[in-house]
Amino acid sequence: MRLGVAGPVGTGKSSILATLCRELAGELSMAVVTNDIYTDEDARFLRSAGVLPTERIRAVETGACPHTAIRDDVSANLDAVEDLEEAYGPLDLVLIESGGDNLTATFSPALADAQLFCIDVAGGGDVARKGGPGITGADLLIINKTDLAPYVEVDVAAMVADAEAARGGLPVLALSRKDPASVAELADWVRALLARHRAGSHVPTDPGPMAPHSHS
C-alpha cells in the first residue's frame, strides 16, 4: 500500500513519517520516498533518526512546485517506489512524503492508495476553516503539534470541530508525537487502512485537483 503524506511547509510531515516508522517497522516491511524541490533534506532527517535502514529511504528532487511530482507527473515517485519494491520487496507499506505545499496539494490516485493531510496548530486556529481539497478530502486529516497549542493560543477542540465540519464525517486526528495515546491512534488507523487495502475493500479516492495556477 502506498500512503501519501501532504501538507504545508513546517507542519511536521517528516516527523509523522518518523513516528509511523517507529511504531510500525517492527511488524511491517516498510520504505519511504521523500520529495523536496532542490535537496534531500527530509530523507537525510529520516536517515539520521534511525527509523528505517537508510537504504529504504529514497529522495526525489522535484525541481519544481512540489505538487508536480505527486499529482501532475508522478513517474519519478513511481520509479522510486518500484526500485524499492524490487530491492526490498515484498513491501507492506510505502510512505510517500510530498514536499511542503499549500492547502490544495493532493496526490494522484495513480501514486497513492490513500493520503494523509497535515496541518498544525502553529499555523493558526483558523486553518481548518480555510478548506481546500487536502483538508476536506484526504483519507485522514492530522492537526499536528497539539502540545504547542498553549504557546500559540489555539483552542485544539475548536480547531478539531472546525475540521470535522469541513470534512463531512471523514476522520480528524489531533496529534502530538509527545502524546502516546494520539500516536497509538495514528498507528491503529494505518493498520486498519492496510487491512482494508489487503481485503480489497479500500477504494482510492481523489480529493480533487489543484486549484488553477501558473508556473510562468
TrEMBL record:
GTP binds at G7, P8, V9, G10, T11, G12, K13, S14. It comes from the Bacteria. Its main location: cytoplasm. The keyword GTP-binding applies. Residues 4-172 form the CobW/HypB/UreG nucleotide-binding domain. It is found in: Cytoplasm. InterPro entries: CobW/HypB/UreG_nucleotide-bd, UreG. Keywords: Chaperone, Cytoplasm, GTP-binding, Nickel insertion, Nucleotide-binding. NCBIfam families: ureG. Homodimer. UreD, UreF and UreG form a complex that acts as a GTP-hydrolysis-dependent molecular chaperone, activating the urease apoprotein by helping to assemble the nickel containing metallocenter of UreC. The UreE protein probably delivers the nickel. PANTHER family: UREASE ACCESSORY PROTEIN G. Facilitates the functional incorporation of the urease nickel metallocenter. This process requires GTP hydrolysis, probably effectuated by UreG. Belongs to the SIMIBI class G3E GTPase family. UreG subfamily. This is Urease accessory protein UreG. It comes from Streptomyces poriferorum.
